[in-house]
User: Fold this.
Amino acid sequence: MPLRERNRTGGAPLAQSTNRDYRSARRSALGADGVLLGTRFLATNEAPFPDGYKRAIVESDGHDTLISEIPDIVNGQVWPGAYARVRRNAFMKEWIGREGELRRRWRDVLP
Assistant:
């Protein structure tokens, strides 16, 4: 059922997320009303991130990264349920699994 018709009948829209372009087309063909694409847009010219961060995203095969809320915690901008893709590094290794403590101490942790 198309999104407009589903909205009229009170049905919830169906959305999918993906990290590959070909999957988004397939999911739309299977009936998804929308597709969420995230990480691939981090490296665009329009993205408000440092060039070094963009290069790291492009050069990564994904095995040296993880999804975490730690970057938002240390920036004091916690978005419940939202996570960021980050490179594995010493800071991440130190705080993974200790997010609650980091929430309480984030100002003391930063240099």
Remarks:
- Residues 1-37 form one domain.
